[in-house]
Amino acid sequence: MKVLLYDTTLRDGAQGEGISYSVTDKIRISQELDKIGIPYIEGGWPGSNPKDMEFYLKMAKSSLKNAQLVAFGSTRRPHSQASGDSNLRALLASKARVATIFGKTWDLHVRDVLKTTLEENLAMIKDTVSFLVAKGLTVFYDAEHFFDAYRANKEYSLKCLLAAQEAGAKAITLCDTNGGTITSEISEAVAQIRPQISVWLGIHCHNDAGLAVANTIAAAQAGCDMAQGTVNGYGERCGNADLVPIIANLKIKLGIDCIAADKLKELTHLSHFVSEISNMRQRSDQPYTGTSSFAHKGGVHINAVMKNPVTYEHIDPGLVGNRRRILVSELTGKTGILIRAKELDLDLSKEDPKTKKILKLVQSLEHQGYQFEAAEASFELLMKKAFKKYRKFFEFKGFRVVVEKQADKKITSEAIIKLKVKGAKEHTAAEGDGPVNALDNALHKALKDFYPALSKMHLSDFKVRILDEKAGTAAKVRVLIQSQDEKDTWSTVGVSENIIEASWQALVDSVEYKLLKDSSNDR
């Protein structure tokens, strides 16, 4: 059995709140989807905006090795001719050789939205599909709101599918556009429709009931040949079916062919790449590809998984390009400390006094509010300090942060910092969008001449957590900072009653980790 994959990240995914792709973004994502072996990539709606048309015309000059680019559009307008429809003319102008047309199948939509007759809607489907087929395009038909339509009027919704099939559509896709259909209904409907459709049968699910992936898998098991989705489940409202776990579930769990086996390990990279281009934070708990997907914190879990990974892992993380992570916290006990030491090439045994000392230190710091499970870089520094494998790159002498607000003027922040670096005294100042940004800028400014590699590092995320709400403005805060360079991403932590002090702790750890990492690589 084989299921064809159809990606609509660049069109349906782009309708997600907070997402906007440039033409360059679309090209880069298309190239990554092509590398992994997605056969159909829906790039946008060329009839709706100039940007999408520009994307198609640029892509027409480049070649995709595995994928075909699909242009999206709608059926012609009521009581008109397909040959004169500007939307359909734009599809032809896009130079895409595959077109997906969506049309109404729910009688409620035909009457209340299109304001036309059921017979005219069937004519719109037939005329549109046959027009594009006659122009040499491969045409897929998306039956919008199909499952609501099938529930309300089975006879008419089926007529819509058959109209597209008779007009020459190569695939008919059943859409759960409102995303509210229960999985058992999906399976039942697909099983009833499948014998009546002679072309490819596809499934397109939205996630409004939290069932989009499950519904897509159920539809494939019931007879669908094509699965539509978006990378990371991006899309309007609650999003679309997430193509990443769909691929993993089809290939690994069900043995259904959808991509080449050697491409599975690229799933984690694809997921993280698209989140970065989309300027969306990667969900740490995303199935298969999240950083927490194979993370273990409880001591019992860690002990068991190190003896036999099957005890607490449903697959080998490497199959999808992910990795196991052992989180160090007060819950992990000595086992977590030993495993992290081994990962860092540090010689440590259960009986070693250092093990007990490090565990007590971790428990004490976590009691104060530190959280090392989300700040692995800070923990690595802690471990290396304990093993005297840490070197000091600079000596802190002091800092001052000034925040000024004058009437009718923008608030300004300036940080003045004093360091001793390689015997030299550094006294620098820098402004920033806020006090933490100003500190970050001043620290980099003071160190850049001594450590040029810091220019390739930047802060990518900043989180503040109040640890004791009842203490009000005197409460301790925990600051988590995520930093990255051209190769890696790492997180550090700071805790204090003063948010500036907590931020400074995390900033210093972040810079020291970068410098320590680079010095280790240079050896």
Explain what the structure shows.
The protein is an alpha/beta fold. The chain folds into 3 domains: 4-259, Aldolase class I (TIM Barrel, Alpha-Beta Barrel), CATH 3.20.20; 295-384, no CATH class; 394-450, Double Stranded RNA Binding Domain, CATH 3.30.160. 39% of the residues lie in helices and 20% in strands. It has 17 helices and 16 strands. The protein has helices at 23-36, 50-59, 86-93, 107-114, 118-134, 146-152, 154-166, 183-193, 212-222, 243-253, 267-277, 299-307, 333-343, 353-368, 376-386, 435-447, 499-522; strands at residues 4-7, 40-44, 68-74, 98-104, 138-144, 171-176, 200-205, 226-229, 295-296, 325-326, 395-404, 412-421, 424-432, 458-466, 477-484, 489-496. The strands form 4 sheets. It has an 8-stranded parallel β-barrel, surrounded by 9 helices. Helix 6 packs across helix 7 (154-166) and helix 13 crosses helix 14. The relative contact order is 0.07. The model has no long low-confidence stretch (mean pLDDT 89).
- CATH topological fold name of the largest domain: TIM Barrel
The structural domain count equals 3
Provide the residue-averaged pLDDT: 89
CATH level 4 superfamily of the largest domain:
Aldolase class I
Low-pLDDT sequence parts: none
Short recap of the structure:
This protein is 39% helix and 20% strand. The protein has 523 residues and is α/β, with parallel strands linked by helices. It folds into 3 domains: 4-259, Aldolase class I (TIM Barrel, Alpha-Beta Barrel), CATH 3.20.20.70; 295-384, no CATH class; 394-450, Double Stranded RNA Binding Domain (2-Layer Sandwich).
